[in-house]
Amino acid sequence: MEVTRQNFKDSLTTVYSAIEEADFLAIDGEFSGISDGPNVSALTNGLDTPEERYMKLKKHSMDFLLFQFGLCTFTYDEAASEYVIKTFNFYIFPKPFNRTSPDIKFICQSSSIDFLASQGFDFNKVFRHGIPYLNQEEEVQLREQYEERRNQSNGSGTTSYISPNANKGLGGVPEEHRDYIKRVIEKVESLFTTSEKTVDLDPCTGFQRKLIYQTLNWKFPKGLHVETLETDKKERYIQISKVDDEERKRRERQKQEREQEELNDAVGFSRVIHAISKSGKLVVGHNMLLDVMHTIHQFYCVLPEDLNDFKEVTQCVFPRLLDTKLMATTQPFKELINNTSLAELQKQLKESPFKPPKVVTAGGFPSYDTAQEQLHEAGYDAYITGLCFISMANYLGTFLTPPKGHIPARSKLIEPFFNKLFLMRIIDIPYLNISGPDRNIQVSWIDDTSAFVCLSQTDQVQIAMNTSRYAESYRIQTYAEYLQGRRHVRENQAQGSQAWGEDGWVKPHYAPVPGTAAGDYRSSSGKRSISPIQEEQAQTTPTDGWSGNTHTHTHPDQGSKKIKTDGLCVRTYAGVVDSRTSEGWLKTQSGSDSSSMSPIQEETAEETSETAGGAWQQQPSANQSKKGRKVKKRKTDDAETTSLFDVPQVW
């Protein structure tokens, strides 16, 4: 169902009813752009911390407009063993409904507009018939303005423009306006001597209207009803009516009812979001962090600066969220799904071992045919997001004894996925945990045998360094030592000597493993997790544009995190904690195959992966070939699986 400003009020009851009866809700949004500065790769850098990712999106994405909101409600019919769906496609535009309402500024990104236009998006419906909205602060301000005007029209309000001598009649009117006010009084006096019941004054300024209200309340305390109206050309004028006390009260009530209706119209689409929030229903989205941020920013409040405050606000607005992209990239689904873009995910979930859900469209609602894709229409995207959730949830039911074909939205089987939002391209912190602390270790692979590792606490760095001194299967060095080694390699190659290892590792102060040349460390695991960067390049200053500090070494496009520690500015780069005391580290690590995950194809064709735990690598056996190391890791019956979070035992 398409909903615009023209049919919004008539559709509200239907929307409220659909939300109330639903088992869960699926949402999706379309925006006027994504980033006002950095490209998408920089905006979603693979080495961001959750705090950095949130701050980047807040800074560079919130000035765009969410102008189409898709809502699909799913209600399970036990008797028919099917879901009944109701889909709504809301067109949204912050049109000022009067001169005192907010006049919203927003920006557009040409590539986004061009893309939506190529998909047949109807921009006329947005700009001509889009539903207005107010956030909570704007709504409160508007109510206060209404109350102030009501008090002024009743003669009880305070008028900042009026002289303190206002109660002395014309003596409180500025000299330059007295002739005008006298003419108004004459028109009103003549109204009492004729059979006419109303007189309309010519359009005038806001200050003149205030003078008229003040003077008429003083001059004619009874027998008149004074009201400000608006012409078709948006010009405001005053209408004066001759009434008795009973009629005057009736008109005042009517005026207040109209004002309340105007206020509700101004709040507009925010009323739908309030209903979703109040319902407490599970809200499902796909790669939905931006959808959640825009929804809160436009319809509730300006996003807070602190990530933890954002989490708190999000839980108040949406008590239960589920991201189908995160679900698809997590056990037990990640070994079965090789492409998690929404369209491809929906196609894969139609095939074995999954089953497409049985759904029917409620009467009076348009039905969608997934064979004829309508991608990037928010209502359709919300619809197929819901289908993906049902297929994956029902698949979890096959692990039960006996198996269950239907898993409801409140099942404990899907609770591990609640309130965890997918973070694009971040390898070792794949989700933002809305209801708890985030994971705080990152691993970024340089090649098959080396990786950057980030620790959240700098005091752990020295512990790791001390522990590794007697290790035989791996080596650790600080990031500063790594950069120094790379420089020495280049210098010594130019001079024809070799003081450092060819791989840029500082030669260890302990003896190498017997029978093994220093630096000859290879992986015995399967295909490695691909880093957002393909090869570490030594730099002396950050070039990502996110920080003004230049004394810390980093790779281009790598995000940074500042931490105050004993007066030092500590920064986290590419899994390296680097400060002026060089407390950063790079490591390789020995371990099992479970530490090296298969990459998951990203929507923009980049490869990302989820590594659970660490990134230790050990020497291979003699019969292990390079080709064997490159093949994609296969799951074995006795393989040890590592989950991103606690899951039910049945998994």
Give me the secondary-structure category: alpha+beta
Counting H and I runs of at least 4 residues, what is the number of helices? Answer: 18
Low-confidence stretches: 156-167, 508-643
Arithmetic mean of pLDDT: 76
Largest sheet, in brief, is: 7 strands, mixed
Beta-strand residue fraction: 5-15%
Count of DSSP strands:
21
Query: Any idea what the radius of gyration is?
Result: 32 Å
Q: How would the global form be characterised?
A: elongated
What does this structure look like?
By secondary structure, the chain is of the alpha+beta class. Helices cover about 30% and strands about 15% of the residues. The strands form six sheets. Strands 1, 2, 3, 4, 8, 9 and 10 form a seven-stranded mixed β-sheet that branches. About 25% of the residues have low confidence.
Keywords:
651 residues; four-stranded antiparallel sheet; alpha+beta; EC 3.1.13.4; seven-stranded mixed sheet
Compose a concise summary of this entry.
The chain is α+β, with helices and mostly antiparallel strands and 651 residues long. The protein is 32% helix and 15% strand. The strands form 6 sheets. Strands 1, 2, 3, 4, 8, 9 and 10 form a 7-stranded mixed sheet that branches. The protein has a 4-stranded antiparallel sheet with strand order 13-14-19-15. A 3-stranded antiparallel sheet has the order 5-7-6.
